[in-house]
Structure formats: C-alpha cells, structure tokens
Specification:
The protein has 324 residues and is mainly alpha-helical. The protein contains twelve helices and no strands. Helix 10 crosses helix 11.
Length: 324
C-alpha cells in the first residue's frame, strides 16, 4: 500500500476512535457550528482567496511559465485582469469545491480541537500560563493535522480549479474531472502531493490560529459581555490578530504545498519539484526567499474571513448552549 494512504488510514482510525469516546452531542454541535461558519466566511472572501492563489502559484503555472499568459504584477493587477478576462463570476471559481472541502475541514478542526483539548489536564491560566498556552497550541495543531488528512484531495482540487489563468478553456471542468484526471495520470498518490509539508505547515498554522485565539479569549474582559456588539467586536479583534499571526507563521509551507499541487496531474518524470526540500531549495535559489511569501498581502486581507469563522463559531455555540 502507498505509505501516504496507510498513514492517512491510520490517523483517520485514531481520530474516529477518539470521536466515538467523546460526548457525541457536543461533537455534533461543534461540527455543525464550525462547518456553517466556515462556509459563510469562505464565500464572502472567495475573491480575495482566488487572487491570493493565482499570485502564489503563478510561477508554477505552465501557461505563465511558457509566456502564453503574462505574469500578475500584484493584487490590483490580478483583480483587474481576472475581472476583464474571465468575468466577475470567475472570482468564485472553485468556491463550491472550497465549501465542500472547507465544511468538513473547519468543522473537524473545531470538533477535534475541543475533543483533543479535553484529553489534556485542566490548568489555571492565571498561575500556569505557559501550560495553558501550550495546551491550546497542541490541541489546535493536532486538530488541524487530523482534519487535513481527511480532506486533502479536496484541498488539492480547490487549488487546481482556482489556478486557471487567461481567457482560454479551463484545464478542469469541475471537481470530479480534476480528481479523475489526476488519478488517471499520477495515481491516488497524486491527490496527496504536498501532504507532508502540509501537515508540517498546518501544525504551526492551526496551533497559532486556535492556540493564540483561545489564549487571548481567556484574557478578554468582554468575552461574556451582555452587550452583543462589544462581545463580538472584542472576539473579532482577538480572532483577527490570531489569524494574521498564524498566516505569516505558516505561509512558506503553504507556498511549497501549492507549488507541489500544481504539478500533480503530470507524470512524475515531468515534475519540476522532486519533493518538499527540493521545492524549498529551488524557490529560494531561483526566486529568492521572499518568493515564499508571494500572495501574503492578499492572504492578510483574507484573514478577515478566518477571523469571522472564529467569531461566528464562538457565537453559535454560545447561543446553542445557553438555550439548553
């Protein structure tokens, strides 16, 4: 069996056993709240996310490498060209796949985080801040890694569907066509190209994302304010800071992941990058270290959506449990 498939199956089994041993009602509430929050936020920020992906992956896009399509010079240029070449609707290209991917991803992230966090001993944030922060980081990171293993083929498809450039025919007609063509040319393993660096990257991203948010929330004096506006605003501030910090902490890993995904449908002999280390080395050598952060500006704007997810999830679950 493919080592990647074996690893995925083992991790999925581990998570499934943990879920079954957790309180089922809480898991379902967390799953639904996280999924709905993610779907709403992703749809709102889809145009920014598409621009970020186009800029981030353009140096691995065959049409741009060949000169058939000119490079994007920045965020404004990318927005203008996508609008004129592909139409306004194109900003949501791949969004349905993203929701299909993001609903289980975000839902499992939140549900697993709370389930995993419950396995750690409870600590007093006032007297054991270091332990409090590390537990939040660990539970967030492990939740993110577990979720990614389950939905990675959808993440790959979302990247490929959103990376089409120019006015010509799209490379893939949809989710099924993308997955089918990739498996046909590269096997099941092609759908998991970049999974290693993704797991390495998701741990600091989700760890900082959830860990910092949970930690800041623990010190937020308006966390349970009776004023809905004050409560939501303070949560959003905590979430926005957490999302931006997490985005920059893991962005180089995300760039390498996207580059590896961009070559998955080709025969392995035609791959530009032979693996994670080779991809890192070639990007730094050929384009400079700053190339690892291409699209980071658009990504910072996109964190508004990530922050919105945290606030929506927090408010939905608080409202549900308050009604019990």
């Amino acid at each position: 069996a493919n080592p990647k498939e074996t690893l995925a199956a083992s991790l999925l089994l581990f998570i499934s056993l943990k879920i079954m041993s957790a309180k089922q009602d809480n898991f379902i509430v967390n799953f639904l709240a996280g999924g709905v929050s993610g779907a709403v936020a992703k749809t709102c920020t889809a145009p920014i996310e598409r621009v970020k992906l186009l800029i981030q992956t353009q140096d691995a896009n065959p049409k741009i490498i060949s000169g058939e399509v000119p490079r994007y010079t920045g965020i404004v240029d990318c927005f203008a060209r996508v609008s004129s070449e592909q139409g306004i609707k194109a900003f949501w290209r791949g969004n349905l796949t993203n929701i299909i991917r993001y609903f289980p991803t975000q839902a499992f992230n939140f549900a697993f985080k709370d389930t995993i966090k419950a396995m750690f001993p409870k600590v007093d944030k006032s007297t054991q801040f270091a332990s409090f922060f590390m537990i939040n980081m660990a539970s967030g990171g492990l939740a993110g890694a577990g979720s990614l293993m389950i939905v990675y083929p959808l993440d790959y498809a979302r990247t490929r569907l959103a990376s089409d450039v120019g006015t010509g025919k799209q490379q893939f007609s949809g989710l099924i066509d993308c997955l089918t063509k990739t498996v046909k040319s590269s096997g099941i393993g092609g759908l998991y190209n970049g999974i290693g660096v993704s797991i390495v990257g998701i741990i600091p991203y989700r760890g900082v994302y959830f860990g910092l948010f949970d930690t800041l929330s623990g010190y937020n004096p308006w966390q349970k304010s009776e004023s809905g506006m004050l409560r939501a605003s303070s949560k959003f501030a905590c979430a926005q800071f957490s999302a931006i910090a997490a985005g920059y902490a893991s962005y180089p890993f995300d760039t390498v992941r996207r580059r590896l995904q961009m070559q998955s449908e080709k025969p392995e002999a035609e791959w530009v990058y032979k693996g994670t280390a080779d991809c890192f080395a070639k990007i730094v050598k050929d384009e400079g270290a700053t190339a690892l952060f291409k699209g980071a500006g658009a990504n910072a704007l996109r964190t508004v959506g990530a922050a919105l997810v945290l606030v929506l999830y927090s408010e939905i679950t608080a409202a549900f449990y308050a009604s019990q």
